[in-house]
Amino acid sequence: MTTLETSTKSATTITADVVVVGVGTTGHGPALVGSDALGRHHGALTDRLAALGVTGKPDQVVRVAAPESWKAPAVVLTGVGPVEEVDAEALRRAAGAATRSLSGVGHAVLALPARDAADAGAVAEGALLGAFSAGTYRSEPETPVERLTLATVKGKEIDAAADRARIVAGHVNATRDLVNASPGELYPESFADRAKELARKTKVTVDVLDVAALEAGGYGGLVGVGKGSTRGPRLVTVSYAPKRAKKRYALVGKGITFDSGGLSLKPPKSMETMKSDMAGAAAVLHTVLAAAELGLPVAVTGYLPLAENLPSGTAQRPSDVLTQRDGTTVEVTNTDAEGRLVLADALVDAVAAKPDAVLDIATLTGAQVVALGDRTAGIMGTDDARADVVAAADAAGEAAWPMPLPPELLDGLRSPVADLKNSGERAGGMLTAGVFLQQFVGDAPWAHIDIAGPSYNSAKPFGYTPVGGTGYGVRTMLGYLEARAAS
Ligand code: BES
Ligand code: MN
Ligand code: ZN
Q1: Could you please report the per-residue DSSP string of 8-73?
Q2: pTM metric for this prediction
Q3: What are the pLDDT digits (tens) for 161-175?
Q4: Ligand 1, closest atom to CA 256?
């Protein structure tokens, strides 16, 4: 694991392997940004940028020899984009792109703009998120940069920002690890064990319902979806309840440890990434752990409905009718629309506890990817909660966009035999799934986050985002909780 410390020394005077410097684009070519951290020693570098082919565009990372007078032998120049638009996310991405290029390096100094807490926190967070190695199953895994020194100024706020960045990035990276885990190893029971292990020695308590308890409790959705697998479903509840908490929030995360589609089997190509169908549950687990580690003054309960969606002689069939936790009957017309079934049961429990708001996060629909692409989450729900989540996502640098819940889509979910069916028309599939969930939240303030696309990166790495699990949602939900705590 990469360590990060702060230093008030000038970056050029620190003994290290490389110094990371930001370069922005201007009307007259590339320019160093935050060069105050370089003291008076940056002129030699500035003059050579254009000749080195350095553009300052995002995701361009160039490593060159450092000027003679610097303590470190190399400089990593990382693009931040237009200098007049350098915001927190531009810094996160530039820092992350740089640290992604540093695997195998021992010690790097970060000389990106970090003179206030917001900038320092962004650089630290981005750098630690970029310093992530996904290849844990490889015989020769890449080792991320060992040690980072953030060149900054003295200040309590700066240190607090660095502390927060370490905690947040640690939990985002741990979420990525869970998502990347082989589904042969990470199944409902082992996921539940993992949650208990992670919560040990923290202020988070964990409660697990096994199949017998789920059957007895009337969790028909979770039981139905889990029926096809020899590894039964679980409902894991993780709670952080500090004494001084005035507000309480519920987070529900879809935890399908592998989604084959069930008897409504997916084609092989669509199945390849379906180990990531528990990304919502992983994000919820680590958000609650992070909230506890940060000592947030709000209570948070995470609900993780975990199941493996497989076809077999014991699997649920298309046309089976199940009864959700609240008594609603559902005709399962498509066993691949399983997420909403497990979420519905958990949402019923979440709402019954009467929290100030409920958020759910789920790799719920392929339609989300069609509508918004693979980096932007769709946010639905009640007006205020939806707006609060979109604002939190914007602040965290996680792309998200508000989406409606057209009431007429409920017509498509009418069943001739039961209260509802679980899949409707193809058009507006993301919204239909949201409308299905809406039937189980009553009048609670609620937001639904569809992360089918942004939870998993099958393309190229960018900024601080690696290939594979991205950890999407942890920073948005944490920011949401922090904002509620402050309001
Ligand atoms: N887990 C999938 C959704 C998904 C698709 C996540 C692609 C990530 C990437 C979900 O369980 C699913 O299969 N949804 C169906 C719903 C349909 C049958 C109504 C879908 O989107 O096709
Ligand atoms: Mn499915
Ligand atoms: Zn699924």
Answers
A1: -S-GGGS--SEEEEEEEEETTEEEEESGGGGTT--HHHHTTTTTTT----TT-EEEEEPPTTSSSS
A2: 0.98
A3: 999 999 999 999 999
A4: 1
